[in-house]
């Protein structure tokens, strides 16, 4: 056969072309990369022990001794924010990955089998999704107790149904395609068809969702800490730092501003990356 | 003549808000070993549902589908898996019938991995042979479906259908999405494979011209029912049912000096959920009488050997 | 011979992407006379769907367009889609393969026809309603009053196609561009729609450009045929001449590979498949698939030759075989 294959290349081959020239994505990657470096090398970067109380230096303004000042217990805010990056990134990673890992099989099974199985699974997911944001995590922490791990569990429980829903829609569409019909006609097992044929074509929207959710997770965890049902002293968590400075920040602006800025910067950088990932993986981006 | 597949009184009904759709209504036919049976008809005639029923991808309402002596309907799971290896399938749309995330070598080899547990060298050799059988070279194996043209993708589908050396292949409009020049290649390939491997085909199509080329036995369906069946040559030479005649007359000729469409057919195909009483074709039929418009429907009658027609007033009487 | 209604010369269209411009049409020329049905035939990648869009000013913003066009003796600025649309608006209509995509699913045909007609002509809704009903009668819609009250999902594909034709004709166009309007229809319905298009073209003197991949439809319907291959016209001729005495090797091969009733023997096939516009072969774009290709075909672009029977661009036309001793 002398037929030349001349069609455009696959989803990923074009992806980097599409993202080239996307300055926002690169800013996101650079900022987020710096935050990861800070988290990894926190002991080298921190100038003080983040937990060391020093009443002689309480609520000190930013200076050369304390780059971002100190809090009401005299702890060095720069070092606390540096260590706090570890906590926030860990929460974001664990909650997002767990939510996707739990939600995807539900959506896959519902979308592939359809019928009563689909109905049952998706109505169950609707129940979770029907709660206003943060209300479900609050209810869960009320049941299982407060703390960093409990907050992560609560966020996972409230996020995974979204993944089920996204994967469900995509899996349902893919399951109607002829190659899935053909796999069934060849007598392959349902498990094989779901994981070899449906899932590899259905997970891209879930990845896009995860890249967008990462920032929201960090924000939600900080919110839980802020209202007092997430991280607790002496956890090093940005939301908790902002919460602890609640009564002071009118007079001592740095105690709230610096951890607040850290949250903002991280979430912003992650969102820029999420948008970039969306542009890269969404095949419709071709037509832009 | 031994029968590979025999379909007896197959019925498939769907309940919809607009009424019961009689997709397949009491259809019976046989496919002898090494023969190809074509099912033709217009949209809504039930030909695709019939194919899916034979493949057990839709569950028939009633009837029997006997393959090689075993009834597929009500067969145990393991029996069904075994029988499925004997029936290959090629679908219409080469764009969606191949998994876009798998290399085409893996697509063709997958049935061999799953059912024959082949791995490594022996798997590679079998897949290479299959690629050669359909006119592709083995170096194509590492590429993805989107890197091929429509005709090549349909060759890959055929290679996959051949992988387990089936006795029967169901072809659901295999060439209707292809360019004309490529369609001819694929039809020739199918004809060639049939002779070489003693295959039987169940060929679903709306194109009479391709059917004439590929089919030994022809079944014409209208609104779920078989209205004429018999040796394809016989029917093309001497159609007995007025609907078959209409289909043949409506197909464009390739001769501008001898146009067929100066008198276009009148009437439209009724909805399969709201079929007229009596002979369903009576509303469009120039030969229809009061007898045709009344229940019961006409019975199947034998006009010549194996040539049967379901009509009160067949052509030639 | 009457003056052409539409004349297109050396139409060139490319599409700009991030890396380059992919040239799809390399200088297509064609003309349509009033009342004439011209078939535009080609395979995928031939440019047969780009040509009508360029003619009607419907190409997207990333298209690079060149060439000359005249419509009813007025020069069309074909490189400027907005200007082209302005001149052709109301004088040219388009019907296409999926009639249901032309209509909103949420309004009756009557309402949509009346909206379109009153917007185009400025008629009152009552008058527009009469025009709509007359248009449905003209396309032999069964029960035209009933059809006005129906929603698009309530009719068959053939009937929806009739309503689309009625809509296209309601503004009394001079030119009708039909892009594969019968491909999705059953043969018996296709026969009806083809007959209808022919009747309307002849009785009203409408020029029709009929785009299709189906040579059978061309043989039944058209007066003249333009065969496209890889963005160039390879042959154009009156329909009987083209089918009985094709000159270009591609036309001949295409006819040989066309299944038709009464041809139960093996088809002649064309090896390979049509080239992509992004990777055209040198010389005659058909040479890699052509059994009669010579060295010249591989290197030199064939020139268009005009004979009394038509025009073709082939170094080694079918007619040149005749003088030879076989």
Explain the overall architecture.
Chain A: InterPro entries: BP-dependent_transpt_permease, MetI-like, MetI-like_sf, OppC_N. Chain A: Belongs to the binding-protein-dependent transport system permease family. Chain A: Its main location: membrane. Chain A: Keywords: Cell membrane, Membrane, Peptide transport, Protein transport, Transmembrane, Transmembrane helix, Transport. Chain A: This is ABC transporter permease. Chain C: GO terms for molecular function: ATP binding. The complex is a heterotrimer of chains A (288), B (317) and C (326). Chain A has twelve helices and no strands. Chain A is an all-alpha fold and 288 residues long. Chain A has one domain: MetI-like fold (Orthogonal Bundle), CATH 1.10.3720. Chain A is elongated. In chain A, 45% of the residues are buried. The N terminus and C terminus of chain A are likely disordered. Chain B is an alpha/beta fold. Chain B has two domains: 227 residues, P-loop containing nucleotide triphosphate hydrolases (Rossmann fold), CATH 3.40.50.300; 64 residues, no CATH class. In chain B, α4 crosses α5. The model of chain B has no long low-confidence stretch (mean pLDDT 89). In chain B, 32% of the residues lie in helices and 25% in strands. In chain B, the strands form two sheets. An eight-stranded mixed sheet of chain B has the order 6-7-8-3-9-10-12-11, with helices on both faces. The longest helix of chain C has 18 residues. Chain C has eleven helices and twelve strands. In chain C, α3 crosses α4, α4 packs across α6 and α6 runs parallel beside α7. Chain C has 326 residues and is an alpha/beta fold. Chain C is globular, with a radius of gyration of 21 Å. In chain C, the strands form two sheets. An eight-stranded mixed sheet of chain C has the order 6-7-8-3-9-10-12-11. Classes of the chains: A mainly alpha (288), B alpha/beta (317), C alpha/beta (326). At the B-C interface, α5, α6, α7 and α9 of B face α6, α7, α8, α9 and α10 of C.
């Amino acid at each position: 056969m002398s037929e030349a294959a001349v069609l455009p290349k696959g989803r990923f081959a074009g992806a980097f072309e599409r993202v080239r020239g996307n300055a926002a994505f690169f800013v996101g990657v650079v900022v987020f990369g710096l935050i990861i470096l800070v988290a990894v090398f926190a002991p080298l970067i921190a100038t003080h022990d983040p937990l060391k109380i020093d009443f002689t230096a309480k609520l000190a303004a930013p200076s050369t001794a304390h780059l971002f000042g100190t809090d009401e217990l005299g702890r060095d805010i720069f070092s606390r924010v540096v260590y706090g990056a570890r906590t926030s990134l860990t929460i974001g990673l664990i909650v997002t990955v767990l939510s996707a890992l739990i939600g995807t099989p539900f959506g896959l099974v519902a979308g592939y089998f359809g019928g009563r199985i689909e109905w049952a699974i998706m109505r169950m997911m609707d129940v979770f999704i029907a709660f206003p944001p943060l209300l479900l995590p609050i209810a869960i922490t009320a049941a299982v107790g407060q703390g960093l791990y409990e907050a992560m569990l609560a966020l996972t429980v409230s996020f995974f149904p979204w993944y089920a829903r996204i994967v469900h829609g995509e899996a349902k569409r893919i399951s109607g395609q002829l190659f899935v019909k053909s796999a069934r006609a060849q007598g392959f097992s349902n498990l094989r068809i779901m994981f070899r044929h449906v899932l590899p074509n259905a997970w891209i929207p879930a990845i896009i969702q995860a890249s967008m959710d990462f920032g929201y997770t960090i924000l939600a965890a900080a919110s839980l800490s802020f209202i007092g049902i997430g991280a607790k002293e002496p956890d090093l968590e940005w939301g908790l730092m902002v919460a602890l400075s609640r009564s002071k920040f009118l007079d001592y602006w740095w105690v709230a501003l610096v951890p607040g800025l850290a949250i903002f910067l991280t979430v912003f950088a992650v969102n820029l990356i999420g948008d970039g990932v969306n542009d890269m993986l969404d095949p419709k981006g071709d037509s832009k | 003549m031994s029968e590979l597949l025999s379909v007896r009184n197959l019925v498939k009904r769907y309940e919809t808000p607009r009424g019961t759709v009689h997709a397949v209504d009491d259809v019976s036919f046989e496919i002898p070993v090494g023969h190809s049976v074509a099912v033709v008809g217009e949209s809504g005639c039930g030909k695709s549902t019939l194919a899916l029923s034979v493949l057990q991808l839709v569950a028939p309402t009633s009837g029997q589908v006997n393959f090689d002596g075993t009834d597929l309907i009500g067969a145990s799971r393991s029996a069904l898996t075994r029988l499925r290896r004997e029936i290959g399938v090629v679908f219409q749309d080469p764009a969606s019938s191949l998994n876009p995330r798998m290399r085409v070598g893996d697509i063709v080899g997958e049935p061999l991995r799953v059912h024959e547990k082949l791995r490594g060298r022996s798997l590679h050799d079998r897949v290479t042979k299959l690629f050669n059988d359909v006119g592709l070279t083995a170096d194509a194996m590492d590429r993805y479906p989107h890197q091929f043209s429509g005709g090549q993708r349909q060759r890959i589908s055929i290679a996959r259908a051949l992988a387990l050396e089936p006795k029967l292949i169901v072809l659901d409009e295999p060439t209707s999405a292809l360019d004309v020049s490529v369609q001819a290649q694929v039809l020739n390939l199918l004809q060639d494979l049939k002779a070489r491997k003693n295959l039987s085909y169940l060929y679903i199509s709306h194109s009479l011209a391709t059917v004439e080329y590929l089919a030994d036995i022809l079944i014409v369906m209208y609104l779920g029912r078989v209205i004429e069946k018999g040796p394809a040559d016989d029917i093309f030479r001497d159609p007995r049912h007025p609907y078959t005649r209409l289909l043949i007359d409506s197909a464009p000729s390739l001769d501008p000096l001898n146009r067929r469409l100066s008198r276009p057919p009148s009437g439209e195909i009724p909805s399969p959920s709201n079929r007229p009483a009596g002979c369903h074709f009576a509303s469009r039929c120039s030969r229809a009488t009061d007898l045709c418009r009344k229940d019961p429907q006409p019975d199947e009658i034998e006009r010549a050997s194996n040539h049967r027609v379901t009509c009160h007033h067949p052509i030639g009487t | 011979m009457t003056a052409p209604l539409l004349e297109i010369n050396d139409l060139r269209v490319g599409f700009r992407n991030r890396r380059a411009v992919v040239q799809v049409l390399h200088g297509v020329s064609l003309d349509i006379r009033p009342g004439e049905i011209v078939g535009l035939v080609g395979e995928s990648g031939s440019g047969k769907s780009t040509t009508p869009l360029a003619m009607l000013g419907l190409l997207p913003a990333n298209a690079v367009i060149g060439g000359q066009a005249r419509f009813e003796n007025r020069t069309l600025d074909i490189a400027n889609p907005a200007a082209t649309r302005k001149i052709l608006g109301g004088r040219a209509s388009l019907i296409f393969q999926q009639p249901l995509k032309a209509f909103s699913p949420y309004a009756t045909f009557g309402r949509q026809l009346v909206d379109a007609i009153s917007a185009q002509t400025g008629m009152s809704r009552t008058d527009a309603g009469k025009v709509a009903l007359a248009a449905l009668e003209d396309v032999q819609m069964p029960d035209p009053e009933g059809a006005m009250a129906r929603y698009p999902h309530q009719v068959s594909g053939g009937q929806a196609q009739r309503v689309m034709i009625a809509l296209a004709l309601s503004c009394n166009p001079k030119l009708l561009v039909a892009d594969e309007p019968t491909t999705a229809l059953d043969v018996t319905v296709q026969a009806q729609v083809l007959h209808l298009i022919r009747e309307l073209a002849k009785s009203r003197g409408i020029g029709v450009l009929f785009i299709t991949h189906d040579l059978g439809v061309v043989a039944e319907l058209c007066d003249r045929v333009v065969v496209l291959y890889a963005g160039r016209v390879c042959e154009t001729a009156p329909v009987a001449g083209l089918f009985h005495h094709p000159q270009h090797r591609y036309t001949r091969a295409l006819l040989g590979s066309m299944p038709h009733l009464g041809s139960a023997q093996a088809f002649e096939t064309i090896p390979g498949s049509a080239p992509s516009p992004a990777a055209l072969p040198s010389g005659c774009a058909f040479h890699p698939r052509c059994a009669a290709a010579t060295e010249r075909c591989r290197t030199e672009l064939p020139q268009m030759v005009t004979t009394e029977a038509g025009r073709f661009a082939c170094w080694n036309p079918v007619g040149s075989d005749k003088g030879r001793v076989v």
